[in-house]
Amino acid sequence: MDKTFRAFVVNQADGQYIAGFKELTQADLPDENVLIEISYSSLNYKDGLAVTGKGRGVVRNFPMVPGIDIAGTVVDSKDARFKAGDKVVVIGGGLSETMWGGYSAFMRVKADLIVKLPAAFSEKQAMAIGTAGYTAMICVMALEQVGLTPASGEIVVTGAAGGVGSVAVAILAKLGYRVVAASGRAEMHDYLKMLGATEIITRADLDRQPKPLEAARWAGGVDSVGGRTLATVLAQTKPQGAIAACGLAGGTDLPTTVMPFILRGVKLLGINYFEIPAGWRETAWKRLATDLDRAKLDAMTEIEPLTNILALAEKILRGKTRGRVVIDVKA
Description:
With 331 residues, the chain is of the alpha/beta class. The protein has helices at residues 45-52, 123-145, 163-174, 189-195, 227-235, 259-263, 280-291, 294-299, 309-317, and strands spanning 5-13, 16-24, 34-43, 69-77, 87-91, 106-109, 114-116, 155-157, 179-183, 199-202, 218-223, 237-245, 267-270, 301-305, 324-328.
C-alpha cells in the first residue's frame, strides 16, 4: 500500500463548501507527468479565496488541493526536461483553479508549468516571491515597456503592505523611482519606508468616488486593489502615464469615465501574470535576481505552517497579512 501523506483539500457537497486536511496516497494524485515532493508553497489573495470558499468561481473543479505556488524536488518525471532530484518551481498556471496545487506533501504537475529553480534563489526565497512577487515584477516590466523611467515622476503603489505591493515597492525603489505607498494601516509606515517608499498616503486618500479628472500626480502605478482605488488613481495620472492593474481586493467594479484615457492619454495595463509575452517568464526571474534586494525580501517574509492555513486565509482576505507569507508544507 502507498504511504499516506497530508494534503489540504476543498470540496462541495449539497451546496456546502468543505475544507480540511485529508490523508492521500500518490495514487490519489492527478495523472500528470512530473511528480514533485513539495517543500514550500505560499499564501496569495487567490489562495485565501480558494481555501475559504469566499471566492466562489476561483475553484472550478472539485475536489481541489489549493495552493497556487509550488517549490520542491522532482521525484519522478516522464518528461525529458526534468529528472529526479531537480529543484523546481511552479507559479500559478491554473493550480488551485482547474489543477491541484501546492498544499500537499506531493503533487503531480504538468511539465509545461514547471521551471527549474533559478540558481539565485533558495526554495524558500522562490516562494517568498511566489505569484505575488512575480506579478509585481511583470507589472514593472509592463510599465517600462510603455516608456516609464525614474525620470518620469512619482509612482504610486496601492495595497502597498500586501504581497504584490511590498515587492513592487522594493523593486521600484531599487530601480531609482520615487515610490508613494498607499496603505490603510498606520502601523505599516515604518515597514514601507524600510522597503523604499519615500512617502505614505492613506487608503482613504484613494478609496473614494473620484471626479472624472483630478490633479495630475502619478507618472505610473502598480494597483493590486481595483475598485474605487484604481478609479481614483486613474483620475490622478499624468498625461501619457500608465497604471499596471493586477488585483481586485477592493472590488471588481471600476467606477471611472473615459476622461483619463481620451484627455490625458492614460494607459491602463491589465496584468495576467501567466499569460505574458514570449520570453518574459525567464526575463522576470532574471530581473528578480538583480532588481529585488534579497535582504528586503527576507524582511518582508514570514514562514507559517500549513496547519495554520485556514486562519491565514481569513487573515489575508481581511487585509491583515504583511508582505509575503511562505507556507511550510511539512509543518
